[in-house]
Write a structure and sequence with these properties.
about 375 residues; mainly alpha; 14 helices; globular; Acyltransferase_3; Acyltransferase; transmembrane; transmembrane helix
Length: about 375
């Protein structure tokens, strides 16, 4: 069976939301006295751009449920082994990119945040929990590249959900996941009044774990809804109406991302985003084939690299050019992040192709 091509619109949206997250962090780092307007009244440089991470989690939950459903006819008596192999594959795929970014982040942060070699070495050693995706559990370690929290939560929730998706798919996706999403997100709304924030300690784990748990559960439910939607034979007019609705959903999300609206509306924005994602994956939009081109697949790949390589880029510009104007800092941070992302892609591709460490450690790999 041939591998199904990726949804070009989803990949393009990943890229757009990754840029939104980048601009959010630039804005957060340099907007010392509040929101920085881009010249239009009430419009700021993605001061709520963190909402892009919610898109990543929704897509992750959706694809996780889709993967489990594709295996629904396969035996699962060795579910433990299957889960371990799946998790190892996911970690192996993402770890090289994560390692590249975290090494540069440790070097840049260590150099600019500490004045002594001892302090820099201690900083590097204290990054161990971030390196191995276990920071969210509360280990006393420097959260060097805080952006890795997404990977931490994604891996943990995937590990937790896979058994239930494989053993009890129908009940889990149609009953348990909607309840998890409602209870977890409702709790966050009541206690924190916003989806934003990652390092608030709940007493058992960081707040960001709840964020990913509820949103990936919502993404799993979105897959089930999409399957039902795809069974409906819409008219041309019906498809056009749904296409307009899809666009409206993302425009509303964008409006939230660039305005100073109360963060409590991040929850309703999340549900609006989920509706848009269901329509995007359903391909009811008559224009969906426009996005079935390799360039949009490349955009999807770049989204992760932009996400991982932005913190050290922003630190570099902040430390080297503190007197530069905000627009100049935005441009330079963006360019540095893109350069870092492209270099990361090339370096990781080289090591994947040549496998120098594997050949060094395992006999026969060089033949």
């Amino acid at each position: 069976m041939s591998k199904k091509a990726k949804n070009g619109r989803v990949e393009f949206l990943r890229f757009i939301f990754a840029l939104g997250i980048l601009f959010f962090h630039i804005h957060k780092r340099f907007a010392v006295d509040g929101n920085i307007s881009i010249g239009i009244k009430g419009i700021y440089l993605f001061n709520h751009g963190y909402i892009g991470v919610e898109f990543f989690f929704l897509v992750s939950g959706y694809l996780l449920a889709a993967s489990a459903y594709a295996k629904s006819n396969m035996p699962c008596q060795y579910i433990g082994t299957e889960t371990a192999k799946m998790m190892w594959k996911k970690i192996k795929n993402v770890f090289p990119y994560h390692l590249f970014a975290i090494i540069l982040t440790v070097i840049v942060n260590g150099y600019f945040l500490h004045n002594t070699a001892k302090g820099r070495i201690a900083y590097a050693i204290d990054s161990w929990a971030s390196l191995f995706f276990v920071q969210i559990f509360g280990f006393d370690s420097s959260w060097v590249n805080k952006l890795t929290w997404y990977l931490d939560v994604w891996l943990v929730v995937t590990f937790m959900f896979w058994y239930f998706l494989r053993k009890h798919y129908d009940v889990f996706v149609k009953i348990v996941c909607p309840l998890i999403a409602l209870f977890v997100l409702g709790y966050m709304s009541h206690e924190y009044h916003s989806l934003a924030g990652i390092d608030g300690w709940t007493g058992h784990f960081y707040k960001c774990f709840l964020r990913g748990l509820g949103e990936m559960a919502l993404g799993c439910s979105a897959y089930s809804i999409t399957r039902q939607l795809n069974k409906i034979n819409f008219t041309v007019a019906g498809k056009r109406i749904l296409a307009v609705l899809e666009l409206a959903c993302y425009l509303l999300v964008l409006r939230y991302a660039v305005t100073g609206v109360d963060p409590k509306y991040s929850f309703v924005t999340l549900f609006i985003m989920c509706v848009g994602l269901i329509l995007t994956f359903s391909d009811v939009n008559p224009c969906h084939r426009v996005f079935d081109k390799p360039v949009f697949g490349w955009c999807g790949k770049m989204s992760l690299l932009i996400y991982l390589n932005q913190f050290y880029s922003i630190r570099l510009i902040q430390s080297l050019l503190p007197a530069a104007s905000f627009p100049v800092k935005v441009v330079l941070c963006t360019l540095t992040t893109f350069v870092g992302a492209l270099v990361c892609d090339k370096v990781v591709a080289f090591f994947i192709k040549t496998k120098p460490f594997t050949k060094l450690m395992i006999e026969g790999e060089g033949e």
